[in-house]
Specification:
single chain; alpha/beta; Rossmann fold; Dihydrodipicolinate Reductase, domain 2; 2 domains; 10-stranded mixed sheet; 6-stranded parallel sheet; 10 helices; 20 strands; 26% helix; globular; GFO_IDH_MocA-like_dom; oxidoreductase activity; NAD(P)-bd_dom_sf; oxidoreductase; nucleotide binding
Length: 389
C-alpha cells in the first residue's frame, strides 16, 4: 500500500511565527509517511517560498471549518493567537477532527473548561503542545523519585532567564497584552514563552490536576512598556504539602536555558527541558548526568489514533497549569518596574533587569518569591488565592 494512502491528513491553522516550526515538523513526519499536510489556514495564504520544500501544494483558506471539510482532515494543529484556541478547537471537534492545540491551551479557566469539556463530549482526542512533557526525561525523573533516589520531595523549582527584544512585543497586536478588545489574552512570561517551566514543574511535583492545587501566590512585574508580565514568579502550594515555585524573566542579563529542579531531603534532580538533560545529585554519590530522547507530540497523537498509544499531554494533564493562568489573569495588573530597576541595551534593543538572573536561580533554589529574596522592586501583586475544586 502507498504510504500516502495511510498518512493522516492534517490541517495547520497558523503557519507563520511559531507555526513555521510546525510546518517543518509536519514535513519531517510526512517524509516518514506518517502524516500528509492537506491544508493551511491563514488569513493571508502562504507563498510558495514560505512552504518547506517537499510539502506539495496544500489547500489554503482563511475559513478553518470549510478547510477541514474540503481536505478531509483527520487532525488539526492549532497554532493561532491564544484567544482563538477554544473556538477553533471546538470547530474541529464538531467535525470529528482530532487536535494538537498549542500552549497555553486557553487564556482563562472558563475558556479551558469550555474547550476541554466540548472536546470530550465530541469524543475527539486532544493533545496540548507542552513538548517538554514529551521528553523521556519526565518518566525517568518520576522513577528516580519513586525509587527514593533523593529522599522525600519537598518541592520543585523552575527557573527561566530569557531575553526578548522590544520588537518581540510588536510581533502581533496581542503580544504582551493581558486583554485585547475586552477579550482575555494573558500573554505573559509565565503563561506563554516560559509556560513549559510551569507545566513541567507541576508535572514533576505530581500536581497536574485541578484538585492538586491548594493555593497560588503571584508576583508579576514588567520592565518593558507592555501590559503583561515579563519578570514574574509564582508559588503553588499543592494539596499534598509540596511547594512549586517558578521564576521567569524575559529581561535576563545573560540568557540561559531554563530548567526545573526537584528538591529532596537527600539530593536534587535538575532537568534542562529544552535539552532533555538530567543531573542527579545525591548524598554519598558523585553527580550523574543523563541525556534522554523525546517523543514528538504530533507523532504521539497519530499513534494514539492508529494504535491506541496513550496521549502524553491530554487536557487533564494541564489543569493545574490552567489554574496558574487563572490566578495570573485575576491578579491585579503587573507592576511597572521603576526606571532605576532596568536598563536598555541599545545594540540588542532590549531591556534588562540587573541582578534578575541571580534572583531567578535563587527562587528556584530556595522555593522563595522575589520579594522574599530582597528584590527592592518586588512585592505580591495579589493575596494568596485558595483554589476551589
Amino acid at each position: 500500500m502507498n504510504t500516502s494512502d495511510t498518512a493522516v491528513p492534517i490541517v495547520l491553522a497558523g503557519a507563520r511565527g511559531h507555526g513555521r516550526w510546525h510546518l517543518d515538523n509536519i514535513r519531517r513526519l510526512q517524509d516518514k509517511g506518517i502524516v500528509r499536510l492537506a491544508g493551511v489556514c491563514e488569513l493571508t495564504p502562504l507563498t510558495p517560498a514560505e512552504l518547506p520544500e517537499g510539502l506539495g501544494e496544500p489547500e489554503q483558506s482563511a475559513d478553518f471549518g470549510a478547510l477541514l471539510e474540503t481536505t478531509g482532515a483527520r487532525v488539526a494543529v492549532v497554532c493561532t493567537p491564544i484567544p482563538t484556541h477554544t473556538d477553533l478547537a471546538l470547530t474541529a471537534a464538531a467535525k470529528g477532527v482530532h487536535l494538537l492545540l498549542e500552549k497555553p491551551p486557553a487564556p482563562s479557566w472558563a475558556e479551558f473548561r469550555r474547550m476541554a469539556d466540548g472536546v470530550a463530549r465530541a469524543g475527539v482526542a486532544c493533545q496540548i503542545g507542552f513538548q517538554s512533557l514529551g521528553s523521556h526525561a519526565v518518566p525517568a525523573i518520576r522513577r528516580l523519585i519513586e525509587d527514593d533516589a533523593i529522599g522525600e520531595v519537598s518541592g520543585v523549582g523552575g527557573a527561566g532567564a530569557w531575553a526578548r527584544a522590544q520588537a518581540y512585543y510588536r510581533r502581533a497586536p496581542w503580544a504582551g497584552r493581558r486583554r485585547l478588545n475586552g477579550v482575555d489574552v494573558i500573554d505573559g512570561a509565565l503563561t506563554n514563552p516560559l509556560a513549559h517551566a510551569v507545566a513541567t514543574a507541576l508535572a514533576l511535583a505530581g500536581a497536574t490536576r485541578s484538585e492538586d492545587v491548594a493555593r497560588i501566590e503571584t508576583e508579576l512585574a514588567h520592565a518593558n512598556a507592555i501590559e503583561s508580565d515579563d519578570t514574574s514568579c509564582v508559588r503553588v502550594s499543592t494539596a499534598d504539602g509540596r511547594r512549586v515555585v517558578v521564576a521567569a524573566t524575559l529581561c535576563a542579563e545573560d540568557p540561559d536555558d531554563p530548567y526545573v529542579v526537584v528538591h529532596g531531603s537527600r539530593g536534587r534532580i535538575t532537568y534542562w527541558y529544552k535539552q532533555d538533560r538530567v543531573l542527579l545529585q545525591r548524598a554519598g554519590h558523585g553527580p550523574e548526568e543523563f541525556d534522554h530522547g523525546s517523543t514528538d507530540l504530533l507523532e504521539n497523537l497519530v499513534e494514539h489514533l492508529t494504535d491506541g498509544t496513550p496521549l502524553l499531554v491530554p487536557p487533564a494533564a494541564t489543569e493545574s497549569f490552567m489554574r496558574v493562568v487563572e490566578a495570573i489573569r485575576t491578579a491585579p495588573d503587573p507592576v511597572q518596574l521603576p526606571e532605576r530597576a532596568w536598563r536598555l541595551l541599545p545594540d540588542e534593543d532590549r531591556r534588562v533587569v540587573p541582578g534578575v538572573d541571580g534572583l531567578v536561580a535563587a527562587a528556584a533554589d530556595t522555593l522563595s518569591l522575589y520579594s522574599e529574596l530582597g528584590a527592592s522592586w518586588a512585592f505580591p501583586t495579589a493575596h494568596p488565592k485558595e483554589v476551589s475544586p
